[in-house]
Design brief:
By secondary structure, the protein is an alpha+beta fold. The protein is built from three helices and seven strands, in the order H-H-E-E-E-E-E-E-E-H. The protein starts with 7 loop residues before the first helix and ends with a helix.
Length: 167
């Protein structure tokens, strides 16, 4: 049974939320994609995140990490390593280690930046940090004891005119 939500009413009554609504729509779709390579997403600090992919058998030069507007793309393609070295004496009896090409995409929130990537022990680790610009960060507003309003100076009627006439 397939259930798909209709987000049309939200599109009709909101402005500027297109990206969020499209992400919701994409998240509700049933996709028949393989879960390869397996991965973890961790929150390692208040504004720090880590994505770890299990990429056993891939070399550093066979992996590609790129960032597009609000999308992190990780891909891998193994190159033929046996080539001329395989003279026919080697025969694989069971292949349990996946060697197929892959591409994995992660939607990134606004202001999330990739700060580094490393490959160790068959795990590709990508560190991310949310860096909100200073102008968009919450700021504390001082509250004055007079409620923040100063009384306007009032001019008594006729006082200004009399001073002009007297001069």
């Amino acid at each position: 049974m397939r259930t798909e939500f209709d987000f049309t009413p939200l599109f009709r009554s909101s402005v500027g939320f297109d990206r969020m609504l499209e992400a919701l729509r994409a998240a509700t779709r049933v996709e028949h994609l393989e879960n390869y390579p397996p991965y973890d997403i961790e929150k390692v600090g208040e504004d720090d995140y880590r994505v770890t992919l299990a990429v056993a058998g891939f070399r550093q030069e066979e992996l590609n990490v790129s960032v597009h507007p609000n999308v992190l793309v990780i891909s891998g393609e193994r190159r033929d390593r046996d080539g001329a070295a395989n003279d026919g004496s080697r025969q694989i009896l069971h292949r349990g280690i996946a060697t197929r090409a892959f591409e994995r995409r992660f939607e990134l929130a606004d202001h999330v930046q990739v700060v580094g990537a490393s490959l160790s022990d068959g795990l590709l680790t990508i560190d991310l940090r949310r860096e909100v610009p200073e102008a968009m960060r919450p700021r504390r507003i001082e509250i004055s004891s007079s409620g923040g309003r100063s009384e306007p100076r009032r001019q008594i009627e006729g006082t200004a005119e009399r001073t002009r006439e007297a001069a």
